[in-house]
Amino acid sequence: MQLVVGGAYSGKRKTVKNSGENLIWHSAYNEDPFDTWQKSCQTSSIVVMEGWEKWVEEQLILGKTIDEVRSFFIDEIEKLCEAEKSSQFSFYFIMLEMGRGIVPMLEKNRNIRDVCGWILQYAANKAEEVYYCWHGLSQKIK
After folding, report:
1. Binning pLDDT at 50, 70 and 90, where does residue 105 land?
2. Which of 141, 32, 45 is nearest to 91 (CA)?
3. How far apart are CA 28 and CA 14, in angstroms?
4. What SS3 class is residue 12?
5. Other C-beta atoms lying within 10 Å of the C-beta of residue 133
6. Which CATH number is 2-140 given?
7. The model scores a pTM over 0.85
């Protein structure tokens, strides 16, 4: 699994698009439900998963606690990594860097930022390579 992280409109998609062919997008921005990622997997393809903050928000809206949502996504990342190891496809995770240390005023937004931060840390630890994007430039940091 490869991870591309950065702020909004920082060049994350461009970085992924320039990385290869056979990209299949599984995106919360296109209203793809998180739990249907298996349908996006095809042999010799790269599944790009983006919109994690929206998927986190959906789970919180359902009434799940912060810890439940964090555990859910950590478990799912484990499943994604196991699926990648046992198959002929791979994943790119595009994750949004949220806040740059600024704490949102609304509790809902703080919860989304916190859970996304924990998920991002976990994904960075699991990823083979991590790229950070800003101003249309990307730098490999792992």
Report:
1. confident
2. 45
3. 18
4. helix
5. 22
6. 3.40.50.300
7. yes
